[in-house]
Amino acid sequence: MNKPLVIAAVLAACSLSLSAQEARTAPEGFKKIGFGAVNMDRSADPCVDFYQYSCGAWIQQNPVPGDRPGWGRFDDLFHNNEALLHDILEKAAADRPGRTAVEQKIGDYYAACMDEKLVESRGLEPLRPDLERIAALKDKRSLPALVADLQGVDIDVLFGFGVIQDFKDSNRAIATTAQGGLGLPSRDYYLQEDPQSVEIRKQYLAYLQKVLELLGDSPEKAAAGARTVLQLETDLAKGALSPVEMRDPNKLDHMMTVAELQAFTPSFDWKTFLTKIGLPEIKELNVMMPEFMKQMEGRLAAVPLGDWKTYLRTRLATDLADVLPAPFVNAEFAFFGGVLSGTQEIRPRWKRCIEATDEDLGEALGQKYVEVAFGEENRRRMDELVKALIRALDRDIRDLDWMGDATEKEALTKLARISTKIGYPKTWRDYSSLRVVRGDALGNWKRAAEFESRRQISKVGRPVDRLEWLVTPPTVNAYYMPPMNDISFPAGILQPPFFDVTLDDAVNFGAIGAVIGHELTHGFDDQGRKFDAEGNLRDWWTPEDSRKFEERVACVDKQYSGYTAVGDVKVNGKLTLGENTADLGGLRIAYMALQDVLGGKKAAPRDGFTSDQRFFLGWAQIWCENNQPEYSRQLALTNPHSPGRYRVNGVVSNMPEFRQAFDCKVGQPMAPQNACRVW
To answer: What's the pLDDT tens digit per position in 527-549?
Structure first.
């Protein structure tokens, strides 16, 4: 699904949408969304362009809002979730007696974020200690301690540092370094020489100059500083992996002792950094991108301290822009929102403050969200649904004609050990040690970042918590995590248009059923298949079966690489390979599960469509979308998901069941002579 995704008759009473009573008291802005002919363009031929046929009217009726770079069905649902969260936070923010500890935390955090007058009146004062510390640096030997402190409050400087599962022992949490500290979305933005990339770098340079001017530099000094920062980031980017390369876990597994890392990068004092970050005793870590660290070493040795100070100031102001005065907010939006994404206007402050609260206090806010949006019965029935999809995938693996017995046995073992998280965590995160102060937006942001940094660092050397969630309950998404070998479906996505109790099994199987199948298939895509049932990076395939798999995914790569994302930018078939494979497998598995429920019987047509037709329409209508051209380009260069049009047309054109459902003739666009199939 977008990160890092069998409703049987017994589930017919399950509702993940608002009840009639709840609908009467729904918060302002809540709207009815879902599946229906109202979204369709009946003048289009489903065998020529099924996406247009399914989504044409929705596309016409849902232009991109001014404060968004794009708008799709995920955004439809997020809009409703946002309305619920707004209502929750406005009530929690009222400073009244009797608030619970959770209400106080989320309410005061939100209230401080919303206090725009106070933020403006304080100006740069909250930032002054950090700026003074950067200015006071005497030599480059002082950089590691400062970098550790900045990373501890989530300022992306120099490189990435964090905690991951050991690729070879998934039960062990270890420290890791990675590429980081870059202002643009990926390496290619610095290195490509096409006109669009050149123009983006020109605009980025102007943004950096604006930031330095806002920090007090003269225009001349700011212009020179901006050039310095862009050159420094460009040099670092030369050592970075591309988005495609980062999809290969074998390229990210480079264990080193701290002594080896120190010898590899002698200009950076790792003992000081690790002590400041809270890990003075570790002996080894995963240096995920050695070439990046090598490039960083060269820059540390050669670049003067003054240039590093300029770089640190820009990174600080960029990452904290949302809690700084309006000129910083507007400058950041103009480049990252406007230039990079094509967004026309900045989102209202209340929406940005909801996002910030969800990001920093997600499981506290999530507790209140699930009280109104997701019940225990919903979780139980979703669990039954997942089990039904697992049964379908189990049968699919057993029936594959290209997989040998040894690999099949391992695949079935892995499938049986996939664990499932549904709705929200079994144990809520404890935020009692996090101090939230009403009237201190920047302070709250930094303390929340410190809280999360300490929480992550504390994992190193301890057994992995396999019950932990990577997203918050209101999130409209789902994911599969290879080292965990688990699938997760937060409460936020388990509502219309993904699941709707008022609709028939066919539509629900095509929507949420295919989402579940998608996440299950991720365990066996080109990336997930490299991890075993325990979540360890291990090759459990026979050479012959591996060769056959690669032949099949090469077909998918070629198919999607032929699609145009926007203008002259093609879909990157290798970058999107895992998601495309999961889409293909997920919809096929969901179709199998639907047939199991129907038991060979033909369901009566509804609204003029057969059960099979409604199944495919259910899939198509969760991918309707509109995007600004700039955003489409950014997604094509950095996002592992294909555009919605191809998540629909690319998948159904590979399914004989679709051809039969809509009576397509071989040779039509949705019924090509040769189809791709992996799972």
So the answer is: 999 999 999 999 999 999 999 99
> Would the CA dihedral through 287, 291, 292, 293 be positive or negative?
positive
Q: Is 583 a catalytic residue?
A: yes
Q: Out of 583, 612, 625, 630, pick the active-site residue.
A: 583
Strands (E), 44-186: 70-72, 160-166, 169-178
Peptide bond into 497 cis (omega under 30): yes
How far is residue 217's CA from residue 314's CA, in Å, rounded to a whole number? 12
What is the rounded distance in angstroms from the CA atom of residue 361 to the CA atom of residue 32?
28
Percent of the chain with pLDDT over 90: 90
Q: In this structure, are residues 493 and 476 in contact, taking their beta carbons and an 8 Å threshold? A: yes
What is d(CA 666, CA 659) in angstroms, rounded to the nearest whole number? 8
Whole-number pLDDT of residue 130: 96
Closest by Cα among 400, 442, 436 to 123 = 442
Any catalytic annotation for residue 612? no
% of the chain beyond a pLDDT of 70? 96
Q: What are the tens digits of pLDDT across the range 67-113?
A: 999 999 999 999 999 999 999 999 999 988 899 999 999 999 999 99
With a CB cutoff of 8 Å and minimum separation 6, the contacts of 542 are: 404, 406, 407
Longest dimension (CA), the chain: 79
pLDDT (0 to 100) of residue 26: 62
Domain architecture of the chain: domains with CATH? 45-85+360-463+471-662 (3.40.390.10), 129-324 (1.10.1380.10)
For 109, the 3-state DSSP assignment is helix
Using the Cα atoms of residue 313, residue 317, residue 320 and residue 325 in order, give the sign of their dihedral.
Answer: positive
Predicted pLDDT at 300: 98
Contacts of 350 (CB under 8 A, 6+ apart): 86, 114
DSSP code string of 618-636: HHHTTS-EEE-HHHHHHHH
Strand segments (E) across 274-350:
284-287
End-to-end CA distance of the chain: 17
> Between residues 330 and 379, which one has the greater pLDDT?
330
DSSP structural state of residue 576: T
Cα–Cα distance between 560 and 91 in angstroms, integer? 47
Cα 238 from Cα 258, distance rounded (Å): 24
Phi, psi angle pair for 285, to nearest 5° = -160, 165
Active site residue: 360, 519, 532, 545, which one? Answer: 519
Contact between 407 and 540 (Cβ < 8 Å): yes
> Would you place residue 259 in the very low, low, confident or very high pLDDT band (cuts 50, 70, 90)?
very high
Per the DSSP assignment, residues forming a β-bridge with 668 are 666
pLDDT band, residue 4 (cuts 50/70/90):
very low
Is the entire prediction scored with pTM above 0.90? Answer: yes
Closest CA to 31 of 70, 81, 74, 72: 81
Q: What is the dihedral of CA 142, 148, 154, 156, to 10 degrees?
A: 60
Pairing relationship of beta strands 486-490 and 419-423 according to DSSP bridges? parallel
Give the model's pLDDT for residue 2.
35
Between CA 645 and CA 565 the distance in angstroms is 9
- Of the candidates 649, 615, 618, 563, which has an alpha carbon nearest to the alpha carbon of residue 49? 649
